[in-house]
Structure formats: structure tokens, C-alpha cells
Amino acid sequence: MIKQIEKTVAYLQERGFKTPEVGIILGTGLGQLIDEIEIIEEAPYNQIPNFPTATVEFHKGKLIYGHLEGKKVIVMQGRFHLYEGYSLQDVTYPVRVMEKLGIKTLLVSNASGAINTNFKKGELMLIDDHINLQGSSPLAFNGVEKLGERFTDMSAPYDHTINATFENIAKKHNITLHKGVYASVVGPQLETRAEYRMLKIIGADAVGMSTVPEIIVANHLKLKTAAVSVLTDECDPDDLKPVNISEIIAMAEKAEPQMITLFRELIRTL
């Protein structure tokens, strides 16, 4: 993997991806942040050596480099998931590449379902902690110790200072920003009523199919990390209605201006 990363990094550096400070992973329906960036270079995933290719129709497939709020940023416009058939090492490969390019901070967005019945669709949730229900770890492979400490500490996977800044920005702009625990499952099927009950019992406030692998690897690489979920549906097992994926994407897009405000103002402070 080290040689693969080196080849990928060399390609991107030749394309002009020079010393980014912040990495951003954009989730479902959250692509309009790209419009706020002064783009310098971009590279389609299918042209980057050793990079996976996004297979989900509403996930773009480009790595973008540019300026946002005075910082050099590298943005994944489209991410990878276990449910697409990738390994956890594939899913997190871009995080390792971004770290080698120079990022010190990783910011992640996603769409998730609200388990906590006090949370409503269209609102945002700052991830304070997570539960990994994807069945394995992106660090579970031979030779991982050559890339970072094998037994990575996860007592505080999300940076307290960044989270506090997010909360201050939300308060300033009257944005509803809950704080809670995100559970990551494999998918792509949505959960049953019994599964939603289980998730609530074990302490999840929201559930999705991404983010946790990337956060684990970011901690492995000693990056500062933070993540925000758009709550796109309400998952009350006692009043569960069928979910329409197009409605989930539309809800994510509706909440996007608030997400953009949070991310822009946060990056300005870094």
C-alpha cells in the first residue's frame, strides 16, 4: 500500500495538488460546497492511479484542489462505501493520500437517519462519538503498523475544539445543530423496525453507511477530525414509513446552505 500511495501522491502533485491544509469529504446531496471554492486543479477518480471509482449515481467522482476562506483545501466530491463492494482499505485510501499530500484536518459530511426522536429531518447533527457496526476495521490488515500505530486510541475521535467552534457558529447563525452518536452500518438496505430499536438501545442518535472508516484512519494518521450529519429521515420504529431515496437526497440538498455556512466559517478559523 505504501508504494501505491506514493504513486498516487506523485501523480496528484504533478497535477498541481500542492500542500493542502484541510481535507473535506462531501456526502450525499452535499456537493454545492464546490461552488464556494476557488478551484485550482481537479482530477477525476478514474484518472488517478490506484484510486477507487464511485459507483453511486448521486456521488460525483472528482478530487478537487483550491482555496476556501484563505485555506488550501482538497475536496472529495463523492466518497466510497462498503456497500459498493469495496474493502475498508479502499474506502479509506483517499484519506491516506490526502494526509501524505499535507492535510492536518479532515472534515466530513454525510446524510443519516435520525434515531433520536427529538431530532427532525432537515436538521443537522454534530457527531460527538460513533459506533462501528460495519463488521471490521480499516486498520485490520497486515503491515498497518508501517503507516501508523496499530492500536489507535479512539477515546476522543472527534476534535473537541473544532466541535466547540461548530457549535458557536451554529448559535451565531441560528442553525439547529444537535450533538450525538452516529452508528455506521454496511447497507445498502435501510434498517428494519427491530434494527432501529436496537440502535436506540445501544445509544445511537443517527445511523448511516459511511464516515466511521474514514474517521478511524484519520485518527490513525493523527489528523484533527470533525463530522456533521444532515438528518434526512426520521426512524421511529413505532411509526416507520417507507423511505424514498430521492426524498432523502432532496432533504440533504435543502439543508445544504446551513452546512456550507458551518464549513466555511469553521475553515476560516483553522
Automatic annotation (TrEMBL):
Its EC number is 2.4.2.1. InterPro entries: Nucleoside_phosphorylase_d (IPR000845), Nucleoside_phosphorylase_sf (IPR035994), Pur_Nuc_Pase_Ino/Guo-sp (IPR011270), Purine_phosphorylase (IPR011268). Residues 22-268 form the Nucleoside phosphorylase domain. GO terms for molecular function: purine-nucleoside phosphorylase activity. Keywords: Glycosyltransferase, Transferase. Pathway: Purine metabolism; purine nucleoside salvage. Gene3D superfamilies: Nucleoside phosphorylase domain. It comes from the Bacteria. GO terms for biological process: nucleoside metabolic process. GO terms for cellular component: cytoplasm. The purine nucleoside phosphorylases catalyze the phosphorolytic breakdown of the N-glycosidic bond in the beta-(deoxy)ribonucleoside molecules, with the formation of the corresponding free purine bases and pentose-1-phosphate. Belongs to the PNP/MTAP phosphorylase family. This is Purine nucleoside phosphorylase. It comes from Bizionia paragorgiae.
